[in-house]
Amino acid sequence: MNITYACPSCEEGVRIHFDADTPELDCPHCQAKIAIDQGAIEGNRVKSCLVCPSTDLFVRKDFPQRLGVGLVVVGIIGSSIAWYYSNILWTFGILFATALIDVALYSIVGDALMCYRCQAQYRGVEEMDTYEPFDLETHEKYRQLEARLEQ
């Protein structure tokens, strides 16, 4: 299993492998150490975030969102150009090809476990289907908490 997170001390991106026996996470940039709570990891299952004290975790596709949006934008621009030149077959062909590529990528790409609070990403965690999918209400709770802390 591995975790990708922003170090709370230096805010640099860190990617570290861990297992149930790992006592702490070490930042290679600033050498800050984050102690892992007892019971946060149970076998190959993450019970709570290793970076922050949150137990609110969700599953999402492990796919770069910018790449997905870029694919959609290319499909829209390509089909719009074909539409401008009154080529209906190419217009719908480009749209369907874009959708087909999107479905293929969705089925190939694996899942990642994420923390609502600190946005830490966990990969290689077993039993991903036992975690809940993204919940907008929980996300909004943490977004509001962060906004209040900044004030």
Please explain how this structure is put together:
This protein has two domains: 2-62 and 110-150, no CATH class; 65-108. Helices cover 37% and strands 22% of the residues. It has three helices and nine strands, in the order βββββββααββα. It has helices at residues 65-84, 88-108, 136-150, and strands at 2-6, 13-17, 24-26, 33-35, 41-42, 45-46, 57-61, 111-115, 121-123. The strands form three sheets. It has a five-stranded antiparallel β-sheet with strand order 2-1-9-8-7, with no helix packed on it. Strands 3-4 form a two-stranded antiparallel ribbon. A two-stranded antiparallel ribbon has the order 5-6. Helix 1 runs antiparallel to helix 2 (88-108). The mean pLDDT is 91.
Blueprint of the fold:
Elements: E1 2-6, E2 13-17, E3 24-26, E4 33-35, E5 41-42, E6 45-46, E7 57-61, H1 65-84, H2 88-108, E8 111-115, E9 121-123, H3 136-150
Antiparallel strand pairs: 1-2, 1-9, 3-4, 5-6, 7-8, 8-9
Helix pairs in contact: 1-2
Summarize the structure.
The chain has 151 residues and is an alpha+beta fold.
List keywords for this structure.
3 helices; two-stranded antiparallel ribbon; 151 residues; alpha+beta
Count of the domains: 2
Shape: elongated
Instruction: Outline the biggest β-sheet.
Output: 5 strands, antiparallel
Low-confidence segments: none
Structural class designation: alpha+beta
The level of helicity is 25-40%
Helix and strand string, N-terminal first? Answer: EEEEEEEHHEEH
Q: Quick one: how many beta strands?
A: 9
Radius of gyration equals 20 Å
Q: Please state roughly what percent of the residues sit in beta strands, choosing from under 5%, 5-15%, 15-25%, 25-35%, 35-45% or over 45%.
A: 15-25%
**What gap, in angstroms, lies between the N and C termini?**
36 Å
Helical run tally? 3
Mean pLDDT: 91
